[in-house]
Amino acid sequence: MKPVAVLCYKIIMGKVQSIIRLLEKVYPESKTALSFSNPFQLLVATILSAQTTDEQVNRITPSLFRKFPGPEDFSRATEEEIIREIRSVNFYRTKAKNIRRLAELLCRNFHGQVPARMSDLIKLPGVARKTANVVLSQAFGKAEGIVVDTHVGRLARRLGLTEEEDPVKVEKDLMRLVPKAKWTTFPFLLMSHGRKICRARKPLCQQCLLKKLCPCPEKK
Q1: How far is residue 91's CA from residue 97's CA, in Å, rounded to a whole number?
Q2: Which of 130, 180, 182, 211 is labelled catalytic?
Q3: Which of 43, 46, 72, 153 could serve as a FRET partner for 128 with CA atoms 20 to 30 Å apart?
Q4: Active-site residue, from 73, 149, 173, 212
Q5: Could you read off the pLDDT of 116-150 as tens digits, one per residue?
């Protein structure tokens, strides 16, 4: 790496550390907003949360998990039975199909347990890197990657940490910049800040504790 590139890298690394330090003071308990009691419940809830708010998912999962407590129960259910419980979320038919199929695979290949490896998780129906990273970080405390949802992608671009739009490419950029010890918490800090201050529409820039670190041209 050329000296100028090394200097730029060190500068942006220092910026990332400042961002983390400031956000941790305001959002000390940042973690997934989804309610769950075990890795399987978190896996299902995360699948349900795609294109749906965490609040809506949390409204339906208590009754869903009472009716279908584990993978065996989901695998024995019909898709229509699952649909009746999750109809209020977006893309409920596709999600019901994927959840039933992944429950069958967990029972068949993993003794009914959610695997704690990225390579195994992303082979399950309806599970991409975002979902796998949520489960690994929040249920197992493992850092194999960084969760990238719409909030994380938006804030990463506004803060000048990436120019990418594709979540996988955003994740790769963040993994180069964020200390691995912070991979499990960093995205949830951004999510908390994205919901409260750095909104997609009309961000509250004058109230933002990161405004001195933010190069976003939208900033007022």
Answers
A1: 10
A2: 130
A3: 72
A4: 149
A5: 999 999 999 999 999 999 999 999 999 999 999 99
